[in-house]
Amino acid sequence: MANDDTEIVQSALDGNEDAFAGLWEKYQLEAQKWAFRYVRNLFEAEEVAQEAFVEAYNRLRELRDPQKFGGWLRRIVTNIAISQLRRRRQTVPFEETSGILIDGRWTKQNNRYELPSLDASIEQQAQTEKLDAAIRTLPQKQRRAVAMFYFEEISQGEIATHMKISIAAVKSMLFRARERLKKELNREP
């Protein structure tokens, strides 16, 4: 798969616009998932992913190792998503906040929801990255089952059909994966 990226990136650098469209098709959903982990809004995640692809296209010549396009794109998505969070945190629409008078003192309240702080968002991202790293340590079949069940929200029955194994085997695989992830996440760095 990585060699495919190298060839596609080189073709795009040689002026083949269709080649970059191939990278879009390959990484579009992943980019949206990466963005969603930060912005927690599907519409914003799509916008972040699209902006990241535009930036990747414009900066493609800066990519040192075309084989690592996916990781490079992920960093671009992450940077744009964090910038989006900063912009969101700096401006809260008027209707989102109001004040009320309590015992003769004016008190500020948020009506609809409390926006998370940037520090909390960055901490959440660090935990997400730690989880991603732990998932990458799983054997391929367990990793695939975890991704399908937890991220793609595919039922255990559908996973069993897709992987051509029994539902009991899927349950066992997910249990073993969770146990291994617990150990990996509780391990000191």
- Judged by helices, strands and strand pairing, the structural class is mainly alpha
Helical fraction equals over 70%
Q: Count the E strands.
A: 2
User: How large, in whole angstroms, is the Cα Rg?
Assistant: 21 Å
Number of helices: 8
Task: State the separation between the terminal residues, measured CA to CA.
Answer: 30 Å
Query: What is the overall shape?
Result: globular
Order of helices and strands: HHHHEEHHHH
Work out the strand percent: 5-15%
User: Mean pLDDT across all residues, rounded?
Assistant: 80
Q: Largest sheet, order of strands side by side?
A: 1-2
Can you put this structure into words, describing what you see?
Strands 1-2 form a two-stranded antiparallel sheet. Helices cover 70% and strands 6% of the residues. The two termini are 30 Å apart. The chain is mainly alpha-helical. The chain is globular. β1 (97-102) and β2 form a beta hairpin. Residues 94-102 and 110-115 have low confidence and may be disordered.
Write the layout of secondary structure elements.
Blueprint: H1 2-13, H2 17-39, H3 42-58, H4 69-90, E1 97-102, E2 105-110, H5 118-136, H6 140-151, H7 156-163, H8 167-186
Antiparallel strand pairs: 1-2
Give a nutshell description of this structure.
The chain is mostly helical and 189 residues long. It has eight helices and two strands, in the order H-H-H-H-E-E-H-H-H-H.
Which tags fit this structure?
mainly alpha; 189 residues; globular; 70% helix; 8 helices; two-stranded antiparallel sheet
